[in-house]
Design goal:
The protein contains 19 helices and 4 strands. By secondary structure, the chain is mainly α. The relative contact order is 0.14.
Length: about 500
């Protein structure tokens, strides 16, 4: 029996999707706390070992929207299996890597799995009952942040008990099982976007993203005024508008610029950029802050394992907020949930800026941040999914996830520069570096909340236009409305 002849219970599909998203999100953060361990084990230096993170970031940024778009065209279920297979192969390569070069290559292969995110949102929209879509998107979106927190928690104990290789063996098993389950139980997509894949657009998108993110991620080590970094920024500044013009004129664009100009889409993407700066920076720098020796006068001197455990309440709060975000969105609207999430982020980062002398203060403040992350991630995903045609769900949510990643790279680079701007004689940052860094994130999260106030609310209906070339009616995006009613999801042909 073919997969098109059967419709798996949406709850089984959701379980498979959650395993895939969780595996990808674990791989985003598990490696961060143990880079010094990997550096020593593979006999390399700090500048080289950072490419373990950079290669993953670049690969995920390039492939997330591309795989989302391919899924819209050839089938989301097929591409979900392909993305999970890439994660499995990359994890196997990393677990067995005999050298730093092989490990870096393995991380680039893992980054292809970033397509799991937009494919997950698209499958949920295609397969779930309309009233279940917001909650399912919210939960799966929150799992991305939850996985990031869990990765920080389990990395230390896993490495101490076994070895750093198990940071890749565990996700490998999860993604392999998820790939098999997806092939067996996830139905083929009922929605397809006709046309070819625009290879030229994909190359241009890859080029400007790599130039921008490589310059940002390597600016601190290469020097912000170095010729290499400046050349990368100039290349990104030139290639980005070239890509936009090429997409606008293309008969088969990779990213539909009309979709990107939808008011809800571009405002939510701007929120995602600002929000990503805060969230990913917190994942990177909070463990360092907690592990700073006590003799500095501000650090707590905890181990990698303890610092992860201290962030466990944040992870739990993120998950709970994601689970309940659907109900909140149904009652108050996704826009209100997004504003609340961004405002809570401002509150949490403000708390870290002015009160970080005791561990209980940090735990309370990071728990508030966890609630904020869960609410905002869920709301952003729901708003984007609701705002675009069903045939563009994958690429739209892929770009939103990608823009969060770009924001994270920018925020991490900015925070690194601020935190390390005034170093002690022993090389450790001074307290003011962290204080000023947290203050920067207060500003970015406040700006995110401000932009969120201007996100248009979506009417619970779509318009239809006549495609001049094909002479048939095709759905286009919902239009903005001043009404404050919560966003609703158009029913798919194969929903319950």
């Amino acid at each position: 029996m073919s997969s098109t002849d059967r419709r798996t219970d949406y709850r089984v599909t959701f379980l498979v999707l959650c395993v895939g998203v969780s595996s990808f999100s674990l791989l985003q953060s598990m490696v961060n706390p143990v880079l010094p361990t990997i550096e020593a084990a593979l006999d390399t230096d700090q500048a080289t070992v950072t490419w373990v993170l950079t290669a993953y970031l670049l690969s995920a940024s390039v492939f997330t929207p591309i795989i989302g778009r391919i899924g819209d065209k050839v089938g989301k279920e097929r591409m979900l299996v392909a993305a999970l297979t890439a994660l499995t192969i990359g994890s196997l390569m990393a677990a067995l890597a005999p050298s730093i070069g092989v490990l870096i290559a393995a991380r680039a292969v893992q980054g292809i799995g970033g397509g799991v995110l937009p494919l997950t949102f698209g499958i949920i929209r295609d397969e779930f009952p309309r009233e279940k879509v917001a909650g399912a998107v919210g939960t799966s979106a929150a799992l991305l942040a939850v996985g990031g927190g869990v990765g920080l928690v389990v990395a230390g104990p896993l490495v101490n008990a076994l070895s750093y290789h198990w940071l890749f063996w565990v996700p490998m098993v999860m993604t392999a099982l998820a790939a098999i389950a997806a092939a067996v139980w996830v139905p083929e997509s009922p929605e397809r976007t006709p046309g070819r894949i625009n290879v030229g657009s994909a190359l241009l998108l890859s080029a400007w993203l790599v130039a921008l993110l490589l310059g940002v991620s390597q600016g601190a080590s290469w020097g912000w005024s170095s010729g290499r970094v400046l050349a990368l920024f100039v290349a990104a500044a030139v290639l980005l508008p070239v890509w936009v013009v090429a997409e606008t004129r293309s008969d088969a664009p990779l990213i539909d610029m009309r979709m990107m100009r939808i008011p809800t889409v571009w405002t939510v993407n701007l929120v995602a950029l600002l929000f990503g700066m805060g969230m990913y920076s917190m994942f990177a720098f909070l463990p360092q802050f907690l592990q700073t020796p006590e003799f500095t006068g501000y650090g707590f001197g905890v181990t990698v394992t303890v610092s992860g455990l201290l962030l466990l309440p944040q992870t739990a709060a993120t998950f709970l907020a994601g689970v309940f975000s659907g109900r909140l969105a149904a009652r108050f609207g996704s826009k209100a949930v997004l504003v609340a999430g961004a405002a809570l982020t401002s509150l949490g980062t403000l708390g870290l800026t002015v009160a970080h002398d005791h561990l209980w203060q940090v735990v309370v403040e990071t728990t508030v941040l966890g609630l904020a992350f869960g609410l905002a991630f869920a709301a952003m995903s729901n708003l984007v999914v609701d705002a675009v045609p069903q045939t563009q769900t994958g690429v739209a949510s892929g770009m939103n996830a990608n823009i969060r990643t770009v924001g994270g790279a920018l925020g991490g680079a900015v925070l690194a520069s601020v935190v390390t701007s005034g170093a002690r004689p022993d090389g450790l940052p001074v307290e003011a570096g962290y204080t000023h860094g947290f203050g920067v994130l207060v500003v970015t999260s406040a700006l995110a909340a401000l932009v969120a106030l201007f996100v248009p609310v979506i009417r619970a209906r779509t318009h239809r236009i006549v495609d001049e070339e094909q002479g048939e009616a095709v759905p286009v995006h919902p239009v903005a409305a001043p009404a404050a009613a919560p966003a609703a999801q158009p029913a798919g042909a194969h929903r319950a």
